UniProtKB/TrEMBL annotation:
Binding-site residues, Mg(2+): T70
Protein name: Holliday junction branch migration complex subunit RuvB
Chemical reaction(s) catalysed: ATP + H2O = ADP + phosphate + H(+)
Example of a GO cellular component annotation carried by this entry: Holliday junction resolvase complex
Matches recorded under InterPro entries: AAA+_ATPase (IPR003593), AAA_lid_4 (IPR041445), DNA_helicase_Holl-junc_RuvB (IPR004605), P-loop_NTPase (IPR027417), RuvB-like_N (IPR008824), RuvB_wg_C (IPR008823), WH-like_DNA-bd_sf (IPR036388), WH_DNA-bd_sf (IPR036390)
Transmembrane intervals: none
Gene: ruvB
Classification lineage: Bacteria, Bacillati, Actinomycetota, Actinomycetes, Micrococcales
Domain commentary: Has 3 domains, the large (RuvB-L) and small ATPase (RuvB-S) domains and the C-terminal head (RuvB-H) domain. The head domain binds DNA, while the ATPase domains jointly bind ATP, ADP or are empty depending on the state of the subunit in the translocation cycle. During a single DNA translocation step the structure of each domain remains the same, but their relative positions change.
Subunit structure of this chain's protein: Homohexamer. Forms an RuvA(8)-RuvB(12)-Holliday junction (HJ) complex. HJ DNA is sandwiched between 2 RuvA tetramers; dsDNA enters through RuvA and exits via RuvB. An RuvB hexamer assembles on each DNA strand where it exits the tetramer. Each RuvB hexamer is contacted by two RuvA subunits (via domain III) on 2 adjacent RuvB subunits; this complex drives branch migration. In the full resolvosome a probable DNA-RuvA(4)-RuvB(12)-RuvC(2) complex forms which resolves the HJ.
EC number: 3.6.4.-
Positions of ATP binding: L24, R25, G66, K69, T70, T71, E132, D133, F134, R175, Y185, R222
Head domain (RuvB-H): annotated segments: 259-342
Length: 342
C-alpha cells in the first residue's frame, strides 16, 4: 500500500513494514493485548477443539486495518500447534488457484485468507463447499465434455480476515462457526502494546512517553509501533538515546503528528473546510481540489478518522466541520444565523 510509506499514521502496511512488524507480533493468545471479548471467546473455541482432538470451527475476523487480524491468525495456528498457510482474496485469480491451495492442505492446518471479501465469485463458491464438506470438485476437460471429480480434503480450519464484513455474501459468512470483530484500542491498551514492543526492541520507554505516543496512535497498534520506531530514531540521532517525553514530542513534531494523531493532510482538509468554506457543507470534490488531492484520497485516507473523531460530519449536502474541529484548529466558528449582531 503506497499510502503506508507516505504517511506515518496510515493504518495499512507495505511488505517492507510487515517485515519490521514481524519481530513485534505477539505469538500466543496471552501476549495479545486488549480485545478482551474476542480473546476470551477465541480461547474457548481453541481450548475446546484441542481438548476434543478435533479441528476448530472456521473463524472470521473483521475490523479495520492494523488491529491484529493477521496476528490472531498466526496465534490460532500456534495455539493449535499446527502450521499456517497464507493467501488472500486478491491473490486468488481463478477458482483453480484456490483448489490447488486447498488440495495441498494437510490435516489440521490453518488456512489464512486475508481480504476474503475480495475473492472472485467462482472461488467463493468453491470455498463454501470446501469449508462445509471438506471437498473440492476438480474440473477435468473443457466444454460439453468437462466433468467434475470430487476430491476429499482432510479437516482444516479457515481463518478469514476482512475489513468489510458486510460485503461477504451470506452463504460464505454462514460457514464461519465463530466471528470476532476487532475494535479500536483504548489509550491504556496501546500503552501496553508500546511497553511490550519497547521491551522487544531493547529500548527503555518512559511511562509518560508511552502515554504520549499512545494518545496519538489513532487506536491502532500498527500506528503505535510505527510511531515508537520513529521516536527511537529521533532519540538515537538527535537525542541522548532515551525515549522520554521530550523525545516523543520532538519526534512527533518532526512527523507533523499532532496531539489527536492528525497529520498534515488531515489538518489541511479540516483547515480548508473551516477557512475556505465557513465550515461547510462543501462537496468532496471541491474540498479535495482545494487541498490538492484526489477526492478518493480525501475520502479514504483522511475522512474516516476525522469522522470517527467527531471533527467532520457527512451530510447529504456535503462535508461539514464540527465545533470540535474549529476548537482543535484554534479557530472561532462563524456565529450561527440567530446569533448575528444585526
Ligand atoms: N493486540 C495486539 N497486541 C500487541 N500487538 C499488536 C496487537 N494487535 C496488533 N499488534 C501489532 O500491530 C501490527 C499490525 O497487526 P496485524 O498485521 O495483525 O494487523 P491486521 O489487522 O492484520 O492488519 P491488515 O488488515 O493491514 O493486514 C503487528 O506488528 C502486531 O504486532
Amino acid at each position: 500500500m503506497a499510502e503506508a510509506t507516505e504517511r506515518v499514521v496510515a493504518p495499512g502496511a507495505d511488505d517492507l513494514e510487515r517485515a519490521a512488524e514481524a519481530a513485534l507480533r505477539p505469538r500466543r493468545l496471552d501476549e495479545f493485548v486488549g480485545q478482551r471479548v474476542v480473546r476470551d471467546q477465541l480461547s474457548l473455541v481453541l481450548d475446546a477443539a484441542v481438548g476434543r482432538g478435533a479441528t476448530p470451527d472456521h473463524v472470521l475476523l473483521s475490523g479495520p486495518p492494523g488491529l491484529g487480524k493477521t496476528t490472531l491468525a498466526m496465534i490460532i495456528a500456534a495455539e493449535l500447534a499446527t502450521s499456517l498457510r497464507v493467501t488472500s482474496g486478491p491473490a486468488i485469480q481463478h477458482a483453480g488457484d484456490l483448489a490447488a491451495v486447498l488440495s495441498s492442505l494437510e490435516e489440521g492446518e490453518v488456512l489464512f485468507i486475508d481480504e476474503i471479501h475480495r475473492l472472485a465469485r467462482p472461488a467463493e463458491e468453491l470455498l463454501y463447499v470446501a469449508m462445509e464438506d471438506f471437498r473440492v470438485d476438480v474440473v477435468v476437460g473443457k466444454g460439453a465434455g468437462a466433468s467434475a471429480i470430487p476430491l476429499s480434503l482432510p479437516p482444516f480450519t479457515v481463518v478469514g480476515a476482512t475489513t468489510r464484513a458486510g460485503l461477504l455474501p451470506a452463504p460464505l459468512r454462514d460457514r464461519f462457526g465463530f466471528t470476532g470483530h476487532l475494535d479500536f484500542y483504548s489509550d491504556d491498551e496501546l500503552e501496553r502494546v508500546l511497553v511490550r514492543s519497547a521491551g522487544l526492541l531493547g529500548v527503555e520507554l518512559g511511562a509518560d512517553a508511552a502515554s504520549e505516543i499512545a494518545s496519538r496512535s489513532r487506536g491502532t497498534p500498527r500506528i503505535a509501533n510505527r510511531l515508537l520506531r520513529r521516536v527511537r530514531d529521533w532519540a538515537q540521532v538527535r537525542g541522548d538515546g532515551r525515549l522520554d517525553i521530550a523525545a516523543a514530542r520532538a519526534a512527533l513534531e518532526v512527523y507533523e503528528v499532532d496531539a489527536l494523531g492528525l497529520d498534515r493532510l488531515d489538518r489541511a482538509v479540516l483547515r480548508a473546510l473551516c477557512t475556505r468554506f465557513g465550515g461547510g457543507p462543501v462537496g468532496l470534490t471541491t474540498l479535495a481540489v482545494t487541498v490538492g488531492e484526489e477526492p478518493e484520497t480525501v475520502e479514504t485516507v483522511a475522512e474516516p478518522f476525522l469522522v470517527r473523531e467527531g471533527l467532520m460530519g457527512r451530510t447529504p449536502r456535503g462535508r461539514v466541520a464540527t465545533p470540535a474541529a474549529w476548537a482543535h484548529l484554534g479557530l472561532t466558528p462563524p456565529p450561527l444565523p440567530g446569533q448575528l449582531d444585526l
